[in-house]
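Below is how a single chain appears once it has passed through the pipeline. First comes the sequence as given, then the structure the pipeline wrote out for it. We keep one example in the README because the format questions we get most often are answered faster by looking than by reading.
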Amino acid sequence: MEHRLSKRVPGKLGLLVYKRGMPVATGQIRDASKRGLFIATDYSDVQLNQTLEIEFRFPEREERHFRRLKAHVVRISDKGLGVDFDGVENDTFTISSLLHWLGQHHRSVEYFPVRQSQVY
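Resulting structure:
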């Protein structure tokens, strides 16, 4: 039985994944909580406990700048990455804004579409 410390909000929002300050992958937020995210991506060049940055923007807001959050990788699966905000410095307003936006938008928004691995 899984015990979560905060409620998960489902949603879909495209993002970029950064490693050591460089963009390395695209992905899509599938669910989020105050403590972390699950990112659907086919990117696999990561290790548990590694710090990554994710960058996104809210598409229909007038602001045009991107937002960035730091997170530690806590789960790696063939469907994506589970990341946790605990232990890294982040703007709690950005996390709250993300949760609110995901709760209000149930459709898929893919500014950075997830690459699908080709099957041969």
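The chain has one helix and six strands.

See the next section for the split statistics.
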